């Protein structure tokens, strides 16, 4: 059986409809992301997988992205606080667009360059999930952490269509059910890892803002009008986007 596990963005080279999940402030938290992506809307997002020889099984977690900064970056409580901050982001146009619109100076860097960039001032912050800072050892120079929940990252589970179709129906059902369980396990595990990571960061002297002004970020981006920036992209689907937004009210 050929099973494939990849960050959602890893599939977008040949199936770009998944890029809709890269939109900011689609989900209020990871729990909501689990319910949505592993339900009817998730099936709809990935319904075209079979056209590229895959069968969508489930959507796991890869973390809710936050913002953390060095002494030079300063604490981030509202959108006004990111003005001019040199913030490392992944090499993705959407991420660059988000932070440029917010008034930051986003720096697109590979993850293996981040720790050095934070230490020499090339970057003054990062937009990673809590556990990422510890897992990737990119927190030595971090002083402030703010839970803005601005972007969620998934990990998609799929199967080779030919191999999947060759299975008896009862085994297909079992595989789908077990994939959903594995997805839930990933969400539960990352939730626990975030708690452990926070303790590590607090012990290192990082100050946490648990209640930042999230609405100020949405207002500065002009959500949902920000999404219109991509309405001419092949992956853009207004009906699907409206359905996703309807959940997060």
Compact description:
With 249 residues, this protein is α/β, with parallel strands linked by helices. 38% of the residues lie in helices and 20% in strands.
Give the SSE layout.
Elements: E1 3-7, H1 30-37, H2 40-45, E2 54-69, E3 86-89, H3 93-101, E4 105-108, H4 114-120, E5 125-126, H5 130-135, E6 144-160, H6 161-165, H7 169-203, E7 207-209, H8 214-221, H9 238-247
Parallel strand pairs: 3-4, 3-5, 6-7
Antiparallel strand pairs: 1-6, 2-5, 2-6
What do you see in this structure?
With 249 residues, the protein is α/β, with parallel strands linked by helices. Helices cover 38% and strands 20% of the residues. The protein is built from nine helices and seven strands; from the N terminus they run E-H-H-E-E-H-E-H-E-H-E-H-H-E-H-H. It has helices spanning 30-37, 40-45, 93-101, 114-120, 130-135, 161-165, 169-203, 214-221, 238-247; strands at 3-7, 54-69, 86-89, 105-108, 125-126, 144-160, 207-209. Strands 1, 2, 3, 4, 5, 6 and 7 form a seven-stranded mixed β-sheet that branches. Strand 3, helix 3 (93-101) and strand 4 (105-108) form a beta-alpha-beta unit. It is globular and about 60 Å long. The mean pLDDT is 92.
- Number of helical elements: 9
In round numbers, the mean pLDDT is 92
The radius of gyration over CA amounts to 19 Å
| Succession of helices and strands | EHHEEHEHEHEHHEHH
* Relative strand content: 15-25%
Given helix and strand content, the structural type is: alpha/beta
Which descriptors apply to this entry?
249 residues, alpha/beta, 7-stranded mixed sheet, 9 helices, 7 strands, 20% strand
